[in-house]
Design brief:
Length: 325
Amino acid sequence: MTLHLIKAIKYAVATFFAIFLAQWLKLDYAVSAGIIAILTLADTNQQTVHYIGNISLAMVLSLTVASLLFYYFGFAVWVFALYLLITYPLAAWMKSGNAIAPCAVSVSHLLLDQTVAFPDLMNEFLLLLIGTGVALLVNFLQPSHQKEMAQLKEDIEDRMRTVLCSYADQLDQASFFGQDRFVITLHELSQLIQDGQHLASRENANRMNQDTLYYKQYFNMRQAQTNVLYQIAESLQRLDQKTSQHQDLAQFLIHVSEQLNERNPALGLSAELDQLIHAYRASELPKTRKEFELRATLFAILTDCQKFLKLKKNFYYESNFIYSH
């Protein structure tokens, strides 16, 4: 079901029930409750709640100012214009200027009926309460993106395994594929992560719970790891000769690809990486400038691997903290 169709259904349902409830309560101008419901509905629950705050503040301001003006100057069109001249700047100053239009409609009801009696003011407040209340309830019908995010998580980890295995192949077999192969795969990985971040942001705006916060942090962690993978890809392009250390690093990258699950704290991988770094430092010193450059590049890759694992380790402990509170 497309987002446009979902929004159309929400508009129709909210409008129908708002008008029906207003008519059932025998309120005047019942259709206004439906209009308020339409204007209140937003893409996320957070946006809806924010607009309800704006329109409530603007309505109190509008009815107060309009009542005073109508009481002292009479029910004339120029008084209605004066009301707008006074109220809109105040509403804009209070960050509620986007809600002045439905409030002006409510004030126009007072102008048409030529009254500022308490029952008429309550009629407008009840229309506001019904319209915003129904909109808020209907907006809770937002579809969940949990399944899509779970699938994206699997796709991201599969694509990340492919990248790491490609890096290992280049190191182990001295088969230099060229940067384009890596860049294309990394771009695809980044796009998957961006899709996940977008869904997580929408879900977080609609359902503030542990699962949505978890996915938001998960996709951010994977994006940071992908940035590290870009750096490793650049370093690999400088390894135009195979050395004795290549195979050990390739094997380590294979191990990383096998333990990508976010529930793994990567403690074993960290220990393996420390041993690898120690072995590199204990190995024979480079004798030529070329060997020195290759050694420096390998150490740069090892440093990036440390960053990669640290991101995963930090996420592991942060996610455990989320679920423990």
